[in-house]
């Protein structure tokens, strides 16, 4: 009967998820050379090339694609078995920015739980600025936020496009201030949007402020106001009215992951979370 080395399978899954031997080695707390050796032994064991490697890219082979789901299930079953024996419970404080959080969040947390059942995930939703402050104060273990100002640290997970979203029947009368729904004054997206309006000489007024992302979405859907939102999380039935109303284009932004975790177990869980995030963005 064919048996597989769990560590080698874990290395394969991590490389497949992160598309990089270097990032996989960092997530697993080992070296790129060690990852390569494990992958070579695994491919020799199963009798197939699982990854296609070039100097610039790493991608799954046809056999690797077929093997990936079963490999995930093997790793998850192994982690559950170990967790049931001796892995101590661990708390994981995760912040997710309101302009980043979308319908995929439950699936992301489910993937994280499957990776480590003894991990208690404490999620906090807020704007990027507040979450970065909490992370810098050591009150969050990790944060998925929009890149702020000139801060260049953190791992880039995705890119976001923004627009001016409103209900299809939104009525803006020429000469009147633009009715704006936005998050709190510390929200980076809100500040970029209002600064763009000021530079363009467009008058605006906030008629719905600080009620949280769900409340802002409700105000937009109801036709009460317009809001600067990511294309990915704009409410169903709303449209980008920026061109129609002559509003300034909003710059794109990066979604980044900040983490202070250093132990192997937590880094592996974080790697699984980042991989799941990228997968959902790619599908979207």
UniProtKB/TrEMBL annotation:
Molecular functions (GO terms): DNA binding; DNA-binding transcription factor activity
Keywords in alphabetical order: DNA-binding, Transcription, Transcription regulation
Coiled-coil zones: none
Transmembrane segments: none
Positions of the HTH lysR-type domain: 4-61
Stored Gene3D superfamilies: Periplasmic binding protein-like II, Winged helix-like DNA-binding domain superfamily/Winged helix DNA-binding domain
InterPro entries tied to this protein: LTTR, LysR_HTH_N, LysR_subst-bd, WH-like_DNA-bd_sf, WH_DNA-bd_sf
Pfam families per UniProt: HTH_1 (PF00126), LysR_substrate (PF03466)
Highest taxon in the source lineage: Bacteria
Family: Belongs to the LysR transcriptional regulatory family.
Function description: NodD regulates the expression of the nodABCFE genes which encode other nodulation proteins. NodD is also a negative regulator of its own expression. Binds flavonoids as inducers.
PANTHER family on file: HTH-TYPE TRANSCRIPTIONAL REGULATOR LRHA-RELATED, TRANSCRIPTIONAL REGULATOR
Name this protein carries in UniProt: LysR family transcriptional regulator
Lineage of the species this protein comes from: Bacteria, Pseudomonadati, Pseudomonadota, Alphaproteobacteria, Hyphomicrobiales
């Amino acid at each position: 009967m064919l048996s597989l080395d769990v560590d080698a399978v874990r290395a394969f899954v991590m490389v497949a998820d992160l598309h990089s031997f270097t990032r996989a080695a960092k997530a697993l707390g080992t070296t790129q050379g060690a990852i390569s050796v494990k992958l070579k032994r695994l491919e020799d064991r199963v009798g197939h090339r699982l990854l296609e490697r070039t100097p610039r890219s790493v991608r799954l082979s046809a056999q690797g694609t077929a093997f990936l789901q079963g490999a995930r299930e093997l790793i998850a079953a192994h982690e559950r078995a170990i967790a049931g024996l001796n892995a101590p419970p661990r708390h994981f404080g995760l912040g997710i920015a309101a302009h980043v959080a979308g319908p995929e969040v439950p699936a992301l947390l489910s993937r994280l739980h499957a990776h480590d059942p003894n991990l208690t995930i404490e999620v906090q939703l807020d704007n990027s600025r507040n979450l970065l402050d909490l992370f810098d104060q050591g009150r969050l273990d990790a944060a998925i936020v929009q890149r702020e100002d000139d801060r260049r640290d953190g791992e880039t997970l995705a890119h976001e496009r923004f627009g001016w979203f409103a209900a299809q029947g939104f009525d803006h009368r020429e000469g009147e201030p633009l009715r704006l729904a936005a998050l709190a004054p510390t929200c980076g997206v809100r500040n970029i949007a209002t600064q763009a309006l000021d530079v363009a000489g467009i008058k605006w007024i906030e008629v719905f402020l600080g009620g949280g992302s769900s409340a802002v979405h409700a105000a937009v859907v109801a036709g009460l106001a317009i809001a600067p939102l990511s294309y990915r999380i704009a409410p169903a039935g709303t449209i980008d009215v920026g061109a129609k109303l002559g509003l300034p284009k909003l710059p794109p932004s990066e979604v980044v992951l900040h983490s202070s975790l250093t132990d192997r177990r937590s880094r592996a869980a974080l790697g699984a979370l980042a991989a799941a995030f990228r997968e959902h963005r790619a599908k979207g």
